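input
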Amino acid sequence: MGARQFLAQRQRQKHSQTWPINEAAGHTPGGWPGWPGGKKFALVITHDVEGQAGLAKCRQLAELEQTFGFRSSFNFIPEGEYRVTPELRRELARPGIRGRAT
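output
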């Protein structure tokens, strides 16, 4: 445990100007109008789909997210052990929120 603390302290000192947060990243870029609707931040949700088991869960996961008003990016491995059907790709790309509570 002592060695781990020593290494962590060394890393903090070495990267103290940029880690864990680069202060320059905390300023709004000049001329930027802000997020739509006056929102304070944005959130990006991505999924790296690996294998047939992951592929089988894509529709259910997308539908669950959409009930909460979220849309995410599904990233498929082109050389994977599975094949993404054109229907699934169209469904994931379709605009609108399905199943959202009103």
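quick obs: The two ends are 52 Å apart (CA to CA).
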